[in-house]
Amino acid sequence: MTSIPWTPDDDDARRLLNDRIDSYEVDPAAMSWWERVLQWLNDALLLNVDASGAGSVIIQVFLVLAVVILVILLIRFFRPSVSSVTQAEAQLVDPSISAAQYLDQARQLLASQKLDQAYLQAYRAMVRSAAVRELVEVTPATTATVFGWSLGSVLPSHRIPIHEASEQFNEISYGGGVPTREATSAMINLAQTIAVAQPTATHPHDNPARLMPR
């Protein structure tokens, strides 16, 4: 009597294939380090992932995400915090200090032969007086260059010394330059002059500062 061949359905075929695969024992010595890592993750996470199949992609994505999260946490943990003193120094002027106070500090520093600091304080006195008089808009993001362009547009008769003062301010602040005593005294006099200078009405399109980023 001839036996009828048995053809399993899809579920039975899949189960038989899995049983056959599970019956094979893989020699750990013949596994690569990557296959061992995947095998360890499979055992730890109770996942049935084929190290050479599509499951490998899933594990790789999981590992990449874990590394990215770890790097983000490390950056946030070790990133140095910016102190309030540093933030204040980054601004052109301190709104809590008046122009008169800046000017007094400039004179005292000039008498002490601290020419670079005296020049900076005298320039800040000019910035504060211009801001208080609303000649120009001064924000925490305003730079000396933008301020010089803005103030020069409303005080055209003083445009050249204002621009030169802004350039000297940047050279001292960022280049470590040291002005002469004559230049520092001239900056103090310029700050006093700007404090009472009368603005000239100009069309907004004539203000070159409008082209500068804020």
Number of DSSP-assigned strands: 0
C-alpha Rg (nearest Å): 36 Å
Low-confidence stretches: 80-89
Instruction: Return the structural class.
Output: mainly alpha
Which band does the percent of strand residues land in? under 5%
What separation lies between the terminal Cα atoms? 96 Å
Order of helices and strands: HHHHHHHHH
Q: How much helicity do the residues have? A: 55-70%
Pfam family, one: DUF4129
Keywords: Membrane, Transmembrane, Transmembrane helix
Domain Protein-glutamine gamma-glutamyltransferase-like C-terminal: 122-188
Transmembrane segments: 57-78
Structure, explained:
With 214 residues, the chain is mainly alpha-helical. It has nine helices and no strands. Helix 5 runs antiparallel to helix 6, helix 5 runs antiparallel to helix 9 and helix 6 crosses helix 8. The longest helix has 25 residues. The radius of gyration is 36 Å and the shape is rod-shaped.
